[in-house]
Amino acid sequence: MSTVHPTAIIDPKADVHKTAKVGPYSVIDAGVAVGADCVIGPHVHLVGNTTIGRGNCFHTGAVIGDEPQDLKYTGEPTRLRIGDHNNFREHGTIHRSNTPDEDTIIGNHNFFMAHSHVGHNSIIGNHNTFANGAL
Fold it and tell me: How far apart are CA 117 and CA 133, in angstroms?
């Protein structure tokens, strides 16, 4: 059974697996799908058309799936796909793609240290480590 802190806000149109854990003051918006055994720490914001695989961990203040930082972006429905067993440390950010034709993609078993950022349309493979503040 999922463990959801009473201060967390989960949109009814989000899909959170029953084994996920959601921490205090986290927000999961419509269009987000969270896989099995994920741990979503406090003050995490999962947004947009974001699909998250199993066993991922999101630490305090991470913002995952927000709009791309691109002046050409005009609000189209774009996507972020995250594989399995990734670790997103404090205040990391991952943005969706900037066009509906592409996705931002995160593979499996990656480690994103504090304040790291993956921009729109990036494709990250497997078993990578991004140091603090890496862009």
Answer: 7
